[in-house]
């Protein structure tokens, strides 16, 4: 029983609720009958030190969040984390993710940092085999970086995103509004924020989307359903939680269900 | 920006949801308009290594959970935690708490480990000055260790607890039942578990309780209200969250409200 006992690591704080939600989903997706059946985890959350990822991608901030995320992953490793999730979609943009993963490699870090975006694409293929058209809701940073469309189109999907005006409204009203945005007010999510998200889903459905990726960690707080009518709502955070359990202790992973 | 930047530490895993709930309440009780306003935290949760605290207090298990909790507090310190909360009421029983605090002292640990039970008594005095009779709902371990009654009676309160049959039912049905107990099924809490907890509150009210301490971390998940009719429902976890913010960065603490 030393600090080196293996644990699941969560690089949290981007934003403040993201790590908590991932930790919560780890509990939900673990087969457990008593509290000792749950998996050891360490969650490090330093929101005040992590520059807004979208602001960085848009050139409005100069410090790459990759540097503090790198340090946090190393700190998680020092507490025994063997596999780490970073529950921030926007941080998976190449300008951040490639710097982070290169630094980790160069430093000799032995942690396996899972790629939430790649895991999401794998999940779609396995659990929604009939889906051909996928929509993406996200921050403006993720929208502009376009890594979901790039990855999914390479795998043969048609990918729909919002046009710029509606995308901007979703970012500013549902996510970042200082009063009713989910980044400020998550428990409970405001009706304004949920309405903007539902409008986004409907727009993507009208363009043919059969599944919608909730591509910002805060979005599933406002759209907690796994399906909305016939449309799959795909939460990359939940997929990441399941991938962490799979890598850490496969026999503890709950079977997937759309209910 | 090193790992030594001060953080709030959470010694979680007793049980698995306890640390998450404390982290969630830290966010709720912090004044924040943007994500960078939230406080840095590190949560370490090792449920599989922490013996059930009640089983230890009842003599059904021999390893004192204090030892692994000690190690976890030291690990939190190594990641920069300057003040730590341990959101487990039962672990505040003298047989566990005194061993933990003595080991921390002897090891030269510089972390301030806050005492959730003492904080709760202080809170009652300040925020419910008219209350004279206090009820306590808890695990059997906390019920038998009786540290809430001891502390509160020393401060002049009348203290009510359940008689043994109902106490046992609450422990076994609402908390530990493998299907509908909150330790197994917390999101959402089952109607069976909530009904047992509500019965407990009513029994204590009928004995004169004006405030009820929800003295096990899982109980507030089934009784999330701050008041039930005229009765104050006092959540030591929320009080601990507020105490951590107070000690860490007082100006970020939200004013208290019973709403």
> Total number of β-strand segments of chain A?
9
The count of domains of chain A is: 2
> Widest sheet of chain A: strand order?
6-5-7-9-8
Radius of gyration based on Cα positions of chain A: 18 Å
CATH classification class of the largest domain in chain A: Alpha Beta
Q: Percentage of helical residues of chain A?
A: 40-55%
Structure in words:
The structure is a homodimer of 259-residue chains. Chain A has two domains: 7-115 and 239-252, Rossmann fold (3-Layer(aba) Sandwich); 117-235, 3-Layer(aba) Sandwich (Rossmann fold), CATH 3.40.50.1860. In chain A, helix 1 (16-28) links the parallel strand 1 and strand 2 (41-45). The radius of gyration of chain A is 18 Å and the shape is globular. Chain A is an alpha/beta fold and 259 residues long. In chain A, the strands form two sheets. A five-stranded mixed beta sheet of chain A has the order 6-5-7-9-8, sandwiched between helices. The first copy, chain A, is built from eleven helices and nine strands.
Q: Tags for this entry?
A:
5-stranded mixed β-sheet, homodimer, 259 residues, 15% strand, Rossmann fold, alpha/beta, 2 domains
Short description:
Chain A is an alpha/beta fold and 259 residues long.
